[in-house]
């Protein structure tokens, strides 16, 4: 698609061209992820390898920044979930759930920080605070049970720094 326009008053001819005419930019990043619970905790740990990841190559080179931020949040969260699922100890299951809940909140908090770092409209839940934010993120879920996508195997993703698990908050 080519767009040609004359900026009135300045006499400037502007030509913007998209070399990939007809190329589809259909991108789907199911979002937000569900809050970890005793009901989905098993799938969080056992089916993590079968849930989608969103490497840079998944997205077009330009545009769709809001989907890229969502994908980055999902990638970050899945990496942190894997860390939580590797916890050992006396009350392993309770520790994993506590860790996963902290990872969920930290990943979505980071997502909101990144949303506010842009000049676009911000994700609705990021405009809320405290429990209202978390309730908002935990509504209208596409995969509340964290079920794997049949036939999908997640690619290796880079290390995601920034998660701090505090077992004393549990």
Your description of this structure?
The chain has four helices and two strands. The N and C termini lie far apart (54 Å). Strands 1-2 form a two-stranded antiparallel ribbon. It is globular. It is mainly α. The protein has helices at 41-46, 65-85, 92-116, 130-137; strands at 2-7, 12-17.
State the end-to-end CA separation. Answer: 54 Å
Strand count, sense and closure of the main sheet? 2 strands, antiparallel
Strand content: 5-15%
Radius of gyration: 20 Å
Oligomer: single chain
Q: Report the helical percentage.
A: 25-40%
Number of strands: 2
What's the overall geometry? globular
Tally of individual helices: 4
Structural class: mainly alpha
Summarize the structure.
The chain is mainly alpha-helical and 170 residues long. The protein is 35% helix and 7% strand.
Core attributes:
single chain, 170 residues, mainly alpha, two-stranded antiparallel sheet, 4 helices, 2 strands, 35% helix, 7% strand, disordered N terminus
Topology summary:
Layout: E1 2-7, E2 12-17, H1 41-46, H2 65-85, H3 92-116, H4 130-137
Antiparallel strand pairs: 1-2
């Amino acid at each position: 698609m080519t767009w040609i326009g004359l900026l009135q008053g300045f006499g400037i001819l502007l030509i913007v061209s998209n070399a990939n005419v007809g190329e589809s930019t259909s991108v789907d990043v199911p979002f937000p992820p569900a809050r970890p619970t005793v009901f989905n905790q098993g799938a969080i740990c056992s089916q993590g390898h079968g849930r989608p990841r969103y490497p840079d190559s998944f997205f077009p080179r330009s545009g769709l920044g809001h989907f890229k931020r969502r994908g980055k949040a999902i990638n970050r969260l899945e990496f942190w979930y894997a860390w939580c699922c590797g916890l050992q100890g006396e009350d392993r299951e309770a520790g994993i759930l506590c860790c996963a809940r902290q990872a969920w909140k930290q990943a979505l908090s980071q997502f909101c920080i990144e949303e506010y770092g842009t000049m676009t409209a911000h994700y609705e839940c990021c405009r809320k605070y405290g429990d209202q934010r978390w309730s908002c993120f935990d509504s209208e879920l596409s995969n509340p049970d964290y079920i794997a996508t049949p036939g999908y195997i997640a690619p290796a993703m880079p290390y995601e720094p920034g998660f701090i698990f505090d077992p004393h908050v549990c």
